[in-house]
Amino acid sequence: MDLTTTLTGFVALYIFMLAAFTGYEIIGRVPAILHTPLMSGSNFVHGIVVVGAMYALLNATSLVEQIIGFTGVLLGAGNAAGGYVVTERMLEMFKPSTKAAPGKANEGAK
Amino acid sequence: MRLQPQLIIDASYFTAAFLFIYGLKRMSSPLTARSGIVVAGVGMLVATLASFLYYFGVNEAAQAQLGTNVTLAAVALGLGTTWAWWSGKRVAMTAMPQMVALYNGMGGGAAAAIAAVELLRTSAVHQTVPLILAVLGAVIGSISLSGSLIAWAKLDGRINGTWRFSGQQILNGAVFLATLAIGAYIIFVADGHAHPGLVAAFFAGALIFGIFMTMPIGGADMPVVISLYNAFTGLAVGFEGYVLQNPALMIAGMVVGSAGTLLTLLMAKAMNRSVSNVIFSNFGASGDEQQGEIKGSQKPAEASDAAIQMRYANKVIIAPGYGLAVAQAQHKLYEFVKLLVDAGVEVKFAIHPVAGRMPGHMNVLLAEAGVPYDMIYDLEDINGEFKEADVAIVIGANDTVNPAARTNKSSPIYGMPILNVDQAKQVYVVKRGQGKGYSGVENELFFADNTNLVYGDAQKVMVAMIHAVKALEGGH
To answer: With contact defined as beta carbons under 8 Å apart, do B233 and B256 qualify?
Structure first.
């Protein structure tokens, strides 16, 4: 764990706090019609865990670590890819009405 | 030599964190939502590809197996992505909640795996704070994994019924405390150098607790539970991000952790329950004992009569429930709505916050049928309009339109916000038979003077309604 950035103590707390508020603000303003896609979208975002699992796997030194790391990457990749596909499929279906007014307009024409 | 790959990794993670937040922000409006997920997807791709650069900076001990490890990582990535892509493409929209649960559980498992590697690395010198977070992340991630799997199996119909016995809470509590005790031992006594068997017991305890905790929860409450586990996985990822000193995991995890928590609270509120009530009580177990006497009778009506009345109405409000989607009637419903709109009727959809199997699920199911989202209204926005509606039609919904929630204090659903369909001049309820809703409560709406029931399969009823209106137009 010899990375150049050190995020310990209060620096880590600041990151956690600001990230928590960010998440709260983003969801707080979402209309209820998007709750399902957004839950799925946030599910996709925590798929970033795959990156941590890759770090663990690349640094594995024993068979046990390799097996656990492999499982971690497999599960994380499933989380990320699956979350992306289902979210994208759902959001693609949300379309505004292309003929919002014609219903009314036709009435006059009849 | 080492600095440059690390710099690229850091820059990629920073980019990913930015793209995640920006993407989620764009997802918060229907107009930009589609681009939002694509933006976040680019972030994921950048971060994942950059992570292969860890190749240049691994521990000396791991150098010998580096080739194997990189191959394993590539294979795992390929397999996981391919399977998830394939399964995600073919899942039906009605089955979306359990699929989200499954993917979410996998994320929790990945977080637990990171913790497991860390706790088994006995050669390393462990500090207390990262150890605490690794153990907490392990517990939360493991619960999320096994709990989500149970939620998936239940919603997918692979496990039926709930599993309850007396003393269950005590047993669950004991398992949970035992798990925490082993965790505390690993942190404070063994300093992260605990026997592998003990670490295994610790994970087993957390996994078993996740199963025990989820088994007694009924299908109607699953959405809240899935959302809770989504928040759990986020937290676990954030904690393991600290352990790995990885800011992308810390930020993404915590954003999801808080967003998921808020979403869980919103959902529980919409059901008029507290989150602890969902998890620790058995809803529906003590259902209909205190039923008041309901006056009136259920009056049947023909689908064609109802359709013609709606054709000549000024304003029609539709209150759909999950029953609509079960009957796969949403396409036919929209076809019928288009006929009404062409005839000059003002049609609106009223969506209860918990319609469907997770909040907003109904919107997804209607969107699948092509219903534009500007015809769809939330409970708060539409409830004042029922008074002006000539016809309100309820399809496959029950508890969410039960007036007892407003009036009957002894009702288990008392206090839950409902759609005020009973205030419309005429109410039609499309229903298979005379059954009760999830809560097991009889619905007095069905007995009201201005209510008629159209019995039958929702899809067949919609087809009959379409025919009735078309026959009318043809006869002109």
So the answer is: yes
